[in-house]
Amino acid sequence: EVALVAFRGTEAETILEPTRSLARAKRMLAAMPGGGGTPLANGIARSLELALKVRRRGAVPLLVFLTDGRANVTLDGRGDRPAAREDARRLADRAAGYGLRSLVIDIARRPHDAARELAQALHADYRPLPVANAARVSGIVASMMPGG
What we know:
alpha/beta, 3-stranded parallel beta sheet, 22% strand
């Protein structure tokens, strides 16, 4: 199963609930716009909520974040970079405390410390991918899955 959470502007939203339709997920991922505000803490919070729901059903979730890691929107929607970074770090620490497997795919044109630091806080694997597309992302995620 796969689900998608988009975090852009000032909030995060689940745009695809867990589904077995990988083709649908790839289409939605390919159509997802980038750029703009990065409410990273909101994205982590929404993803964690969804992952814990999946885990309660007996499945083993893998959190995958496609981001440059540069949080610039706080949990309450303000444009305050230092506070947004702190919110994201706090939520990443919380997510790591649940022992969930995570992957941070750094989609910045040049790999950046912010995404690497996010991966460290999440206790996640880190992969730079400056030229991201659905096939490349899918390949990286597949390699993280059991038997991948």
